[in-house]
Amino acid sequence: MRTLVQEAVAERLRRAGDETVRLYVAACAERMAPLFVGLRAGTGGREVDLDFCVESVHALWCADRPLADASDRVGVLEQFPELQPREEGISDIAETYTFFAALVLRHALLANRSGSAEDGVSCGHAALTATGMLDQNVGGGAFRAEEERLQLLSVSGDVAGLWEASVRAGRERLRAVLSRTARPPQRFAR
């Protein structure tokens, strides 16, 4: 399968090693998490899932070692409704972006556990797919270009400001999606 991840990023992931892979996927998950949390906030019965998502993304930033419970977290995440097969597919805006946010987190947890560049590339590919769709759905968007820039920064070796930039990018994505839905913005702690 051809991936959307820039070859320079994929090559650096392959050469740099486990810690770089874990940092890269933590940043990808950070940028996508607001879509899940913001679009699911206020949905009855999802409080535990929201906490799980926030806690998992936070834990991913400890990139110097794999999470001891990464496999367990993948198992929990795979039970989320967003990752369950659907005969009718996904057509709702909020459903689309919460699916991609959960998928990115799943790939991030897998990459964190394995340290595999290929798992990292899958994570980045899912984030780029989501941001490309967001560009198509929001006139004049530059979300995919920003994701590409931040993915390159994630593997550059100089990651000063990466967390802050990832938080900002995630919030901008949520604002853009909320502008396309009838739902009012939900407040969430982060």
Give a short synopsis of this structure.
The protein is mainly alpha-helical. It is 68% helix and 0% strand.
Which descriptors apply to this entry?
190 residues; mainly alpha; YP_001051499.1 fold like; 8 helices; globular
Written description of the protein model:
The chain is mostly helical and 190 residues long. The protein is 68% helix and 0% strand. The protein contains 8 helices and no strands. Helix 2 packs antiparallel against helix 3, helix 3 (47-60) packs across helix 5 and helix 5 (93-114) runs antiparallel to helix 6. The longest helix has 23 residues, at 18-40. The chain is globular, with a radius of gyration of 15 Å.
Beta-strand portion reads under 5%
Number of discrete helical segments: 8
CATH architectural label = Up-down Bundle
CATH class: Mainly Alpha
Largest sheet: none
Q: Any idea what the radius of gyration is?
A: 15 Å
Secondary-structure element pattern, one letter each: HHHHHHHH
Shape: globular
Fold-level CATH name: YP_001051499.1 fold like
> What proportion of the residues is helical, as a percent range?
55-70%
Class derived from helix and strand content: mainly alpha
| Mean pLDDT across all amino acids | 92
| Poorly predicted runs | none
Could you tell me the number of beta strands?
A: 0
Q: Note the gap between the termini.
A: 35 Å
Number of domains: 1
